[in-house]
Please model this.
Amino acid sequence: MQNDKKDDLGNIKKLIKKIQHDYPQFRVIEGKKFAFRPPKTIIVGPFAPFCELTLLHELGHALCGHKSFKLDLERVKIENEAWDKAKALAVIYKVPIDEDYIQDELDSYREWLHKKSRCPKCGLTRYQTIDGLYHCPRCENFT
Ligand SMILES: [Zn+2]
Ligand SMILES: [Zn+2]
Model:
């Protein structure tokens, strides 16, 4: 088990090196949580299972030029896009693709969106306007 863990860490370090070499326009730094911080910083860590795939996902965000988003629906869309990109990158970098892991990650965003869009008063699905606010078609009156 110990050896496996060491190998994993070696793999992720190698992958970070390769990515820094192939994409010098991005900066890879170690942090608490994997993330892409536009315009060019990729934060990596912790080095848990599937971290290589997660790194490719964040690189996917970077390569797709994802910036901030106002609508939660856009968030789900860009997560999908970043995973599509990650899968293509995984073939190039020979990182095993775990569909279950990817679907779980996407599900957590879908669930988050579902929860957020539910009207707390009546349970109906609300819609979000460009200002980021949610509106319930049943509970809100428009004049
Ligand atoms: Zn993402
Ligand atoms: Zn309502």
